[in-house]
Design goal:
There is one protein chain. The chain is mostly beta strands and 315 residues long. The protein has four domains: 2-91, no CATH class; 105-149, no CATH class; 156-224, Immunoglobulins (Immunoglobulin-like), CATH 2.60.40; 236-314, Macroglobulin (MG2) domain (Immunoglobulin-like). It contains no helices and 28 strands. It has strands at residues 2-4, 8-15, 21-29, 32-34, 49-52, 62-63, 71-73, 77-79, 90-91, 105-110, 115-117, 120-122, 126-132, 140-149, 156-159, 164-166, 171-175, 181-184, 192-195, 201-208, 214-224, 236-240, 247-253, 259-265, 271-275, 282-288, 295-303, 306-314. The chain has a four-stranded mixed β-sheet with strand order 16-21-20-18, with no helix packed on it. A hairpin with a 2-residue loop joins β27 (295-303) and β28. The chain is rod-shaped, with a radius of gyration of 37 Å. The relative contact order is 0.09.
Length: 315
């Protein structure tokens, strides 16, 4: 607690026995009494000084009689005197509070979460000091060492490598190692799962890493009828160029009236393009992918003989 005549700026100083400044804290003060928080770390030793850089500039009050030294802080420290040449003087610092070295409250959270201490909320890595005021004026200092962890997003591989299987076959999906838990949206658990979907299926994985943070990754498994007789029935179908970065052509001969429609589906299972009006002749249809995200798309050709799936890569 300090008592100030005029508002202004004060620099509070902790000095060693040679007068060398160990720590300082510059603060704006107002006229009257107020409590200042210094957070000085006082090393073990003797003959330290607690002072101000220019106390007379704004009139910081002190006692000129009645001081009786030492003033003890339990077994932590003692104020043994002042630098005044006259006895009984006490300078500037009243109702001082000291604490033994604080054991930090070590907290680890995941990005997007927060920690609240008193009236403050923290969301970034750092060391924080919070003073909690009590009704009996015995304040508590909370020292929080906060680490905010970024989640580790898993990678996913498939076998077959392109995620494309024939109807009735199985695909093996393998996530990267190093996670505490693996939860798939189909109810399966574990790093490696085997699936046999009957239609194109998007699988979503949620992992918990060593820091307790969760992350999500997805993978698409494509199911092809693997009907090899489609060309024999007079239907020819081709996609070019593949891979592509913009315009893609779908060319097919539907002289046998076998093709009913063509759809393009993204990895989320959303249909982004469809051709329903298929003529009984040579057909060339194009779509510009310039404004679509890069990645793998499914081209589904619905025929009277069954569905045919083809993979399209946009890069």
């Amino acid at each position: 607690m300090i008592y100030v005549e005029d508002p202004g700026v004060l620099t509070f100083e902790l000095r060693d026995d040679n007068g060398t400044i160990i720590e300082s804290s510059t603060q704006n003060v107002v006229a009257g009494s107020q409590r200042v928080t210094l957070n000085f770390d006082l090393p073990v030793g003797t003959d330290y000084e607690l002072g101000l850089d220019n106390p007379s500039q704004i009139g910081v009050f002190r006692n000129n009689a009645g001081a009786t030294y030492p003033y003890n802080f339990g077994n932590l420290a003692s104020i043994t005197g002042s630098t005044a040449n006259s006895s009984g003087y006490y300078y500037f610092y009243y109702d001082i509070e000291m604490a033994a070295n604080l054991t930090p409250n070590i907290v680890s959270i995941c990005d997007g979460n927060s920690v609240t201490v008193g009236s403050n909320t923290y969301t970034t890595t750092g060391i924080y000091y919070d003073t909690l005021n009590a009704s009996n004026f015995c304040d508590s200092i909370i020292y929080t060492n906060l680490t905010v962890n970024q989640p580790f997003v898993p990678s996913i591989a498939t076998n077959p490598f392109d995620g494309k299987i024939c109807l009735g076959d199985a695909a093996v999906i393998t996530a990267s190692t190093g996670y505490q838990s693996y939860s798939w949206d189909n109810g399966m658990t574990g790093q490696i799962i085997t699936v046999s979907p009957t239609a194109d299926q998007l699988y979503t994985l949620t992992t918990i890493d060593i820091n307790g943070c969760d992350a999500v990754a997805t993978v698409m498994i494509y199911v092809d009828s693997c009907n090899t007789n489609i060309s024999d029935e007079g239907t020819h179908f081709s996609i070019y160029p593949n891979p592509s970065s913009s315009l893609v052509y779908f060319e097919f001969n539907n002289s046998n009236n076998n093709v009913e429609r063509i759809s393009v589906i993204n990895v989320l299972g959303e249909e982004i393009f469809r051709v329903n009006d298929i003529s009984v002749a040579e057909n060339i249809t194009s779509i510009d992918f310039s404004n679509y995200p890069k990645g793998v798309y499914l081209v589904k050709i619905a025929t009277k003989s069954g569905d045919i799936n083809r993979k399209l890569i946009i890069e």
